[in-house]
Amino acid sequence: MTPRNILPAVVRVADSVAETLAAHGVTDAFGMPGGEVVTLVDGLEKAGVTFHLARHETAAAIMAAGAAVVSGRPQLLVTTVGPGLANAVNGIADALQERVPLIVISGIVDRSTRGRYTHQVIDHARLLAPIVKASFEIEAESAASTVARAIAIATTAPMGPVHLDLSPTVAAMAGPERHLVPPPAILRPAIRFDDPAVVTVLERISHAERPLILAGFEASRAAAGTSLLSLAEALGAPVLTTYKGKGVIPESHPLALGGVGLSPRADDILLPLCQRADLILAIGYDPIEMRLGWLDFAGDGMKLIEITEAAVDHGMHHAGMQVVAPLKPFIDALAIKANGVPGWADGEPVAARAALAGVFSSAPAWGPHAIVEALQEEAGDAATVTVDSGAHRILLSQKWLAQRPLVLLQSAGFCTMAAALPLAIGAAIAAPERRVFAVMGDGGLEMGIGELATVRDQKLPLTIVVFQDRSLALIALKQASAGLQPIGVELGLTDFAAVAHGFGGYGINVETLDDFRNELAAARERRCFSLICCRFDAAAYAGAF
Predict the structure, then answer these.
(1) Domains of the chain by range and CATH?
(2) What is the DSSP letter of 189?
(3) What span, in angstroms and rounded, lies between the C-alpha atoms of 100 and 74?
(4) Helices 327-337 and 196-206, interaxial angle, to 10°?
(5) Is the pTM of this model over 0.90?
(6) How far is CA 474 from its chain centroid?
(7) Per the database record, which ranges form the Thiamine pyrophosphate enzyme N-terminal TPP-binding domain (predicted)?
(8) Using an 8 Å Cβ cutoff, are 217 and 211 in contact?
(9) Secondary structure percentages of the chain, helix, strand, coil, to 5
(10) What are phi and psi of 438, to 5 degrees?
(11) Distance CA 361, CA 401 (A)
(12) Are residues 436 and 375 in contact, defined by beta-carbon separation less than 8 angstroms?
C-alpha cells in the first residue's frame, strides 16, 4: 500500500520508450540534446541507457555504428528538432549503407502548434525517406509497440536505420498501464545437409575444379567464419573478402587472399583469378564497397552463387543462383558434405598470394608502409582498429593482416570522411576492455576534430594515429592519373600535437620509425588519449596501391 503522503511514480511515455529500448538490448545512446528531447534523455537515464554527448550529430551516429559492430546490439541516436536531425543526415546515410541497426529518435514540435509554428520546422520523415528503412511518430497509446516495431525493422536483414519522431508533450505524458514490449524469443531451425537448396549447391560444387569464395561483412557479423573456413579447406578454395569482411578467416591462412575492392594493383592480380574460377560462392557479400572495376567480374554470372540472409539490391553483377538463408547454418551444411573436392591443381591462388605480398611490401625506412607495419606489430590480434577514408585506408586495408573478424572497422560502403574517430569512440564504449586505435588522415581529423573533446570527456585512452601528408592524397592521386593539376587538395601544416594537448590529451609529432614505435608503446600506459602525428610527404603514396 502506498503511503498517503507519497505519490505513486508516474510512468511517462519517455519511460516506456526508454524501457523498451533497454529491454531490446540498447545500453547506450549517442547525440546532442535539445529542449525537445530532455524528457527522453531523462527517461533513458532512469532506464539504465547511458547518454553520451557528442560534438556533432553525424559523429554521434557513427559512434553508434562502432558500438553496434562491437556489441552486436542495436544502438540509439538522439537528436533535437530541425538542425539537429539535419546535421545527422550523413551519419544516418552511413548507417544505411553500412547495415547498422540504428534507432534514430528526434524531437519534433508538438502537434498542437505544428500547423502554425515554423521555427526550426522541417518534415523529418520526408528528409530521411531515402536513407531509413522506416519512419514513425511515437504516440502515447502505442509508444512501446512502435519502438519494438522500429527495433525489429532495424535488426532484420539487411539491417539499417529506423527513424522515430517524439514530441515533448507526448514524451512527458503519462503512458498507458502496459508500457513495456519485450523482445520475442527467436527460434532458428537448423538447416540439414539434405535440404534441397544445400543439395543443389553441393551438386554445383561437385563439378568445380577452381572454386573461389568471396566473403563480405555479413559473413563476419553472422559469426560464420569457422564454418566458412571449413568449407574453404574442404574445397581448396581461396577466400577473398571485402574490406569490412577482413578477418572472417585468419588472414595468415594460406587460402586467405585478403581484402579487395579499392586497390587497382590488387585487382590486377585477383580479377584474373576470379575470371579463371569456374565457381564463385559469394557469401554474405554486398558489392556496395567495390570499385567499378568489379562490374560483371564473374562474366555472365552463371558460375556465381550468392548466399545471403537477405537479397541485396545492386546491379554490379548478375548471379546464376541466389540462396537466401541463415549464413552460418547453411555454410555448415555445405561443409559437412563438401569433403574431397579437388581445387586449383595448378596452384594459382598460391602464386596470387605471393604476388600480393610482394606488391604491398615496403622498403622505405619511413612513410605510410612503415607506419602500417609498426602499428600492426603494436596492435596485435586483440585490439580494435578503425580507419578513416583516404589513401591511407586503401594501403592499410591491403597490408593489414586481420586474424579475427570485426576488428578492422571502417566506413567501406559510404566511405564517409572523419569516420575513424567516432567509430573508435563507439567501439571503446561498447568494449572498454579492448585497446582501440583510430587511424586518420589529416584531412579527416580536421573535419571532425571536435570529437577529441568527446574522447576526453568519456575518459577513453584511445591511441589516435594521424597520417599527416598535408594533402587530400587520394584525390590528388586521382587528379594526377587524369593528367590534371592538384587543385583544392593541399592542406596547411596543423600542429596536431598542440591541438591534442589543448583537448586534454597527449600529443606528439614524429618523423622516424623508432620514435613512432616508442610512442605507440608509451601510449599503452596512458589514461588519457594519445595522438601520434606521423609526418611524411604525400609522394610516398605514388604507386602504393
Answers:
(1) 13-172 (3.40.50.970), 196-356 (3.40.50.1220), 361-541 (3.40.50.970)
(2) P
(3) 8
(4) 50
(5) yes
(6) 21
(7) 12-125
(8) no
(9) 40, 15, 40
(10) -110, 125
(11) 13
(12) no
